[in-house]
Here is the input.
Amino acid sequence: MGSSFYGKKLKLGVLGGGQLGRMLIQEAINLDVFVSILDPSKDAPCAEIANDFVCGDFNDEESVYQFGRDKDVITVEIEHVSVPALERLKGEGVKVYPDPEVLKIIQDKGLQKQFFRLNKIPTSAYSLTATREELIAAVQGKSCVQKLRTGGYDGKGVKVISASTNTADLLDGPSVIEELVDIDQEISVIVARNADGEVKTFPVVGMEFDAEANLVDRLFSPAQITAAQETIAADLAVKLVEAFNFVGLMAVEMFIDKKGDILINEVAPRPHNSGHQTIEGNYTSQFAQHLRSILNLPLGATEIIQPSVMVNVLGAPGFTGPVEYEGIESILKIPGCYPHLYGKTETKPWRKMGHVTVLGATLEEANNKASQVKKMLKVISK
Here is the structure.
């Protein structure tokens, strides 16, 4: 890419204008990269800070095609976008990262699973169902997990099933039925690869989930795993991006089962909630690394500066409407505490409204601070 990436010499188009795009823009400003955003909401978090904002549907082929025609590089902050439009743009010489063929696989959790199996990537046992009848037969009397093949995100489109689950409560649509893993820990690896084939992984992080919201509650960096598990997880992430011939940033979510074995759960071809702590906690943030990878620049150092814990800031149950934050002044008194509010004007229960990263000399210290943040900071409506 040389020196042609800054100013208006290169136009970067991003499909999606949510918080991931917003944090990508904040890093792009540091390199003077011109960023255009396409999002269906005129109030999207990116709307006020993008160099150019277009209100349009990133699932509509013609809208994406027209948006991308004058861009040098196109990337995504959400994978549920029009692949046919990206195929057309790629055919006309626009650089599209991740590649449309990769997106096509990742958009479909069934194709993801088949890709893992084909490339000898360890994952939980599964079956695929196309009809309601096949679905009922596949889950009958079992403890398993149903995942809709397309459209799910942030815990939506996923249902844990027990032998007593009423079939009327099953999700509608073609599904992946996964064997229930006896999970000891959930971990994630952020990995980046540029067009020259340079690959770097971030240190493994541990994730703790909120059972009610089915979202990450806290993220721990570094993960509390063995050195051998760290190596295996990183090697699996590298194997995956190389199998995909992937360019960009990928989050690889994994399970460690009670036997200590590591299984791939699923992947996201973009910056991810499990990498937010890198903004303050690592030498290079996941957003800067994503930019470097898609612009074919040298990848940045990924080592941890200090142990960190990230907490998601979610809309409080029972509140819907114009957002109001309680406790910001209190958490700002905590040393090493970094709030990130996403600029969303409306809150609703469990909506991701921001995150807070806290650093500490030890992970225990950072986690104690994170517990204070959880008590002090509330997202309500006026």
In short: The chain has a mean pLDDT of 95. Residues 125-179 form a domain with the Dna Ligase; domain 1 fold (CATH 3.30.1490.20). Residues 12 and 35 are 5 Å apart (CA to CA).
